[in-house]
Write a structure and sequence with these properties.
alpha+beta; Enolase-like, domain 1; 2 domains; 6 helices; 3 strands; about 25% strand; disordered C terminus
């Protein structure tokens, strides 16, 4: 059984040009906007989860990656060690229960960063399902799946076909 062996949370800062506070006295996410000639230093964080079989999952936060959500992620991280990353739903329910008194924004980055698990059996099963429900061949599906996102459909949502 695979187990989570390491959880790394890395905080980082960067400066964004032409971005600033709409009102100088308020510092909140909703108060950030376009400000010609301005610059704003933002703080976000990344989560890296490694398992003992060498698999690794990563996620870098965006607007929701506040210091408050990072505090939640840091509080949850030690509880992941030794757990099977394949038990995603169980892990998610435990994290939700742990943060029941909070908004739960620290759960998403961990959930997304859990190392992916796709076994050879699952790939074969999915190929058989695709052949059963689709008039196009499984090799066509594989070709589309292996294309870079931008070459699939320019009007599609990133990551969707």
């Amino acid at each position: 059984m695979t187990k989570i062996s390491e959880v790394e949370v890395v905080e980082f800062k960067f400066t964004v040009p032409n971005l600033g506070l709409s009102a100088e006295s308020a510092r909140a996410v909703y108060n950030i906007g376009y400000k010609p000639g301005g610059s704003l230093e933002l703080t976000k964080y990344a989560v890296v989860i490694r398992s003992d079989d060498g698999a690794e999952g990563q996620y870098v936060t965006h607007w929701g990656g506040t210091r408050a959500s990072m505090a939640q992620t840091l509080a949850l991280a030690p509880n992941l060690l030794g757990r099977n990353p394949d038990h995603r739903e169980e892990i998610w329910n435990d994290m939700k229960r742990e943060l029941r008194q909070h908004d739960g924004m620290g759960i998403g980055p961990i959930d997304i960063a859990l190392p992916p698990r796709i076994s050879i059996t699952a790939k074969a099963r999915d190929r058989r399902r695709a052949e059963a429900i689709s008039p196009i061949s499984a090799s066509s599906i594989a070709q589309v799946a292996n294309m870079p996102p931008r070459s699939r459909n320019a009007n599609a949502i990133h990551g969707m076909v």
